[in-house]
Amino acid sequence: MQNVSTNNNILISIVIVNYKVPYCLIEALDSLRLAKLYDRAEVIIVDNASGDGSREIIASKFQEARWIQLKKNIGFGSACNIGAEAASGKYLLLLNPDAVVSADTLANAVEFMEKHPSAGLMGPKILNPDGTLQLSCRRSIPTPSVAFYYFAGLSSLFPNSRRFGRYHLTYMDENETAQVEVISGSFMFMRLELFNEIGGFDRRFFMYGEDIDLCYRIALAGYEVWYYPETQIVHQKGRSSAKRRIRSRINFYGAMIIFLQKYHDSQGTRTPRWLTWAGIVFLAMLNIGAITLRAIAAPLVDIAILNYILWNILKSCACSNIISRTFGPYILECGPEPLYTAAPLMPLIGNASISFAFVFLFAYNNVYSVKRHRLKNLFFSGIMSSALVMSGVHFLTDYPKFEFGLTLVFSIFFFIFWRVALSGLGAFWRLVKKNEKRY
Fold it and tell me: Is the pLDDT of residue 372 over 50?
């Protein structure tokens, strides 16, 4: 394999920013090797302090790639700027490490730019791994009205409307070459001279928004931004930030505020700046709150099931000798609704201890960190939690061991049941949606 970095006839400088996705990067580099004009390209990888051995993994397979190692994560745009400073080609391609190009992508991109001297930036058709169009590959500038239509759900309800569908330009044919306002930052093809002329990416954008800002400044400089579906890539969106969803959302909405501060007045919008700012903050709180709730939903469901079963078993046995001996001093009245008075924390402490044991061991066994649950792992985690609880109860001579054991058996069953039921409903819903698309 020719060492393209030492080729004196460089046409394309490909800059890729890596952050803890070495195996995605391998796929991207493999696809580039198969692309036409790769022999006239240089690959510059800027690593944002991954600290995961990415350099060693990549260097063993792609000796031709130039590696720039950063000591700290400075963000996507700033890292791209550093890569561009080391570039020597006529054209600059900013490519995400989780993108796979087609064999004709580089050649088609060069041909398009040669035929369109007024084009400042070009982006291809971008597909999701399942073959569907990634809507972010062509967009409009998110003015207050465009953003409102999108976040209010009107763009989804009326995708073919030129007014409501502007955010992702869903009213356009996905195979239509068109001049647009914004293309995706996962693949941005431009002249290196222009990138340097406008000063590269704005360093204030850590992640998200830098592609919109760059497109906007290219248009302000008098050049065109084009969507060119004659060639396509596959983008595994969000792989680099999947493990840090809350921080990712904070960066996303922070980028919206930075963009608002830069261009609110120049866009000629009538919406007050404070109102737009308040709307962004509200959306951020709503979105981050939903992510947090989704993350703790499963543990909360497990705790609710466990406590509901335990409380009802203890209530049903409240007049038995065992329960009377255990809770006798604290029960004011024996019946279907016993009232705990003198030391109401006694049963609550027991419930909390069991809940903690289950949630801790489920988390330890990665029950909460996977979307598809293995019944074996669920059952094993339940048995471990039960053993831990019963070993503690064993040393408490006055505690109702039989009732606790019964609670654990029922709880394990319902822990498995609600997950299987939810997975079944999800599979059914996906099948319905698939059939809708087919017809």
Answer: yes
